[in-house]
């Protein structure tokens, strides 16, 4: 069986996925190793990832079946990277159960202004991260993945521990910015994941990774909601003046210790994967420029879909806890921090199960594009349920509220598979192996820019709707539902190359013989 020689259409190996891998030249590796042959990385002429070009036919010969398909996944390294990946969601989501209360009581803000300042604090983390992501990518290209990862994990641990000591709003802003200053771990983690897997192991590796990320969404609120106001929740702390003066210090300290533990594990367990920093490896080829990359076939469409998905998800993530905290008469559910914690924990746990158990099978049996289009429909349906939840509580229909709430939690968790889909789309559309890092840098820039704008825009819109009683306080949900409907049109632009239909070599040979 033969393949086309167009290098823009060959991408059998895996690069870093998701929004945070701004490495300017992720090498083409299998299990973290690479070979040189015929003057090209991995023995692949002209940037091809498979086989050799037949001089007579001009076509690429099918590589041996054991090239990538039989390369085992380094489970120990992947698990260590998954543990390190817990840091960002734990540090980010641990404040969600109590940040509204902290802004109101410690920050001295009126209830109608809570949504705005909550979104501001969340957005600043991403804004600072966006400004430094290329720096972390280049630094890890120069010094190696491992030292940059350990440095970043340690910095986030310190900043997270200090957040609970804030005495006013501006100290909250400062410590959140410091956390963003060190938030380069996800950059390196995704690069190291890509350098440890192949096309045939990527779905499994990244389903584990997404499971870990969603486990972090579970652990973060558990720490935040379970340990905030410790002097009121636990008799053992009721006479401890420190926790009376600093009601949010304990969850911050525990978050910091947890993040520090990932740095310790990474220091002792992880191996360096950067080509040139590994004994016996050669240099990687030069990547395409950003302009060349953006002009490559299909790349612009995939980045558009990726950005739309991230914008939709981040708007929902920012508005959801504020909606849960807002009093019923103003358009929310009036939940306590503990109930908010339980809600987010259930959502995070459900997402983890969807990603670990359902996504690999669905992606393998259908395609990445099919799963993505199904999730797009789900987004519109689930987002439309949230204003209905408030209307049910206004009408005292609690018996109807709880089943609908469960559907929104489980359904909202299922559509989170779209995150993994767009990450794999980024891999599949990459024009060449040496462009994977640059493409992920562009995706990360888009995501970080959205993360800097979407939370504050969405929560400000929500606060405006609540303050002026626009549409019963559901103004933000109307816009989110509209964006979810538009997402169904965006996913129709997905190029065929990014569909992610996985056909094993043995299956392809069987079809050819028949």
From TrEMBL:
Mode of membrane association: Multi-pass membrane protein
Biased composition (Polar residues): 1-12, 37-49
GO cellular component terms attached to this protein's record: membrane
PROSITE patterns documented for this protein: MFS (PS50850)
Signal peptide: none
InterPro entries registered for this protein in UniProt: MFS, MFS_dom, MFS_trans_sf, Tet-R_TetA/multi-R_MdtG-like
Major facilitator superfamily (MFS) profile domain residues: 77-499
Keyword Cytoplasm applies: no
Name of the protein this chain belongs to: Major facilitator superfamily (MFS) profile domain-containing protein
Organism: Cryoendolithus antarcticus
Taxonomic path: Eukaryota, Fungi, Dikarya, Ascomycota, Pezizomycotina
């Amino acid at each position: 069986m033969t393949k086309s020689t167009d290098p823009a259409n060959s991408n059998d190996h895996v690069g870093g996925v998701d929004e945070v891998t701004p490495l300017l030249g992720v090498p083409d590796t299998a299990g973290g190793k690479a070979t040189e042959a015929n003057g090209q990385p991995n023995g692949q002429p002209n940037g091809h990832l498979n086989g050799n070009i037949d001089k007579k036919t001009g076509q690429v010969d099918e590589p041996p079946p054991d090239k990538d398909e039989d390369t085992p996944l380094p489970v120990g390294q992947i698990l260590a990277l998954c543990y390190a990946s817990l840091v960002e969601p734990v540090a980010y989501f641990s404040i969600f159960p109590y940040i509204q209360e902290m802004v109101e009581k410690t920050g001295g803000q009126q209830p109608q202004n809570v949504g705005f300042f909550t979104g501001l604090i969340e957005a600043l983390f991403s804004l600072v991260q966006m400004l430094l992501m290329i720096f972390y990518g280049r630094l890890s290209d120069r010094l190696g993945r491992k030292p940059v990862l350990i440095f970043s994990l340690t910095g986030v641990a310190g900043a997270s521990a200090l957040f609970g000591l804030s005495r006013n709003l501006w100290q909250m802003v400062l410590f959140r910015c410091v956390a963003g200053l060190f938030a380069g771990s996800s950059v390196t983690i995704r690069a190291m994941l890509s350098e440890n897997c192949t096309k045939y192991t990527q779905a499994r590796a990244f389903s584990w990774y997404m499971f870990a990320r969603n486990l972090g969404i579970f652990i973060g609120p558990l720490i935040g909601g379970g340990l905030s106001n410790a002097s009121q929740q636990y008799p053992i702390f009721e006479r401890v003046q420190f926790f009376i003066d600093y009601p949010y210090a304990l969850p911050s300290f525990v978050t910091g210790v947890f993040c520090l533990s990932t740095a310790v594990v990474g220091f002792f367990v992880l191996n360096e994967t950067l080509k040139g920093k590994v004994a016996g490896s050669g240099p990687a080829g030069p990547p395409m420029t950003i302009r060349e990359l953006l002009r490559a076939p299909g790349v612009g469409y995939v980045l558009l879909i990726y950005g739309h998905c991230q914008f939709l998800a981040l708007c929902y993530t920012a508005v959801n806890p504020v909606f849960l905290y807002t009093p019923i008469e103003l358009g929310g559910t009036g939940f306590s921090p503990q109930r908010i914690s339980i809600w987010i924990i259930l959502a995070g746990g459900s997402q983890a199960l969807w990603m670990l158990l359902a996504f690999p099978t669905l992606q393998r049996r259908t395609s990445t594009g099919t799963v993505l289009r199904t999730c797009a429909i789900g987004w519109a349906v689930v987002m439309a349920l949230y204003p209905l939840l408030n209307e049910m509580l206004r009408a005292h229909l609690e018996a109807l509220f709880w089943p609908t709430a469960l559907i929104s939690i489980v359904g909202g968790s299922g559509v989170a598979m779209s995150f993994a889909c767009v990450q794999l789309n980024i891999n599949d559309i990459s024009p060449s192996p040496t462009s994977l890092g640059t493409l992920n840098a562009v995706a990360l820039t888009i995501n970080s820019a959205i993360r800097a704008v979407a939370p504050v825009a969405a929560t400000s819109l929500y606060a405006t709707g609540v303050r002026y009683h626009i549409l019963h306080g559901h103004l933000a949900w109307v816009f989110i539902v509209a964006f979810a409907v538009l997402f169904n049109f965006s996913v129709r632009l997905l190029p065929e190359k990014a569909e992610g239909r996985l056909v094993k070599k043995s299956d392809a040979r069987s079809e050819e013989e028949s």
